[in-house]
Amino acid sequence: MPLLVEGRRVRLPQSAGDLVQAHPPLEERARLLRGQSVQQVGPQGLLYVQQRELAVTSPKDGSISILGSDDATTCHIVVLRHTGNGATCLTHCDGSDTKAEVPLIMSSIKSFSDHAECGRLELHLVGGFSDDRQLSQKLTHQLLSEFDRQEEDIHLVTLCVTELNDREENENHFPVIYGIAVNVKTAEIYRAAFQDRGPEEELRAARALTGGPMISIYDAKTEQLRIEPFSWVPFPHVDFWLQQDDKQILENFSTSPLAEPPHFVEHIRSTLMFLKKYPSPTNTLFPGNKALLYKKNEDGGLWEKMSSPGS
Q1: Which is one GO molecular function term here (predicted)?
Q2: Is 0.85 topped by the overall pTM?
Q3: Is domain 3-305 in CATH 3.20.20.70, yes or no?
Q4: Which end of the chain has fewer CB within 10 Å, C or N?
């Protein structure tokens, strides 16, 4: 009896709209979340999760108290939390390999459970909108179906996706919510935007743009952000793309050109510049082929680079 709402088994496949009609508490929670004002989240205690990244921690963490992600247009931000030990996972899914990503989310939460604890798994899905290509709709369906396939009971608590996260302006559709944060200690989920997306923002963005799979970026035991060595092939026609105007960049690099946040083009350009500068990252960006390690400084505000562990 995997995916449950208010203790009842969810009947799939259903659209997000049909699902909330069948379960009114979901509709009310989506309405309340949409109605919030956006909170600007500072770097204090924050771990920012980029596209195709996953981070998990618990209330015992002395460095991280907030997990967050934004810039989701057709993407969905997924939060899975165990109410017993407070272990919380946040990930930013783009539909590239949902079938592999959901088990990864599940196992990341299970890694905090040494023994059977009281409590339950609660799922929150936010993001997407009624886009022309129906990519959001497809991703919503994929995520609900994959969570429904898991062996454990999973309680769907928040569903603010696709048509439930849609607003219309001049006959164009946009997401209402682009980003959320979750307070690991209080379990509060709220609308959020972030200035600090580090560390190694460009390296991490380049990994996603070159098709890297979902990875876990944080080790809660050591309280370190950890980027294992990886490589990419030189980005094809990078000089050509860097010469294109904003409209061309939007149309070729976005799944939903009209709905992107204002900084999207600048972000893509800086990522392409990074890929041009480092056509092969293994030796230049990962000296000695070792992981890059970062830890929050004493007051929990800024990430500081650690020396790499011994070979």
Answers
A1: protein-N-terminal asparagine amidohydrolase activity
A2: yes
A3: no
A4: C
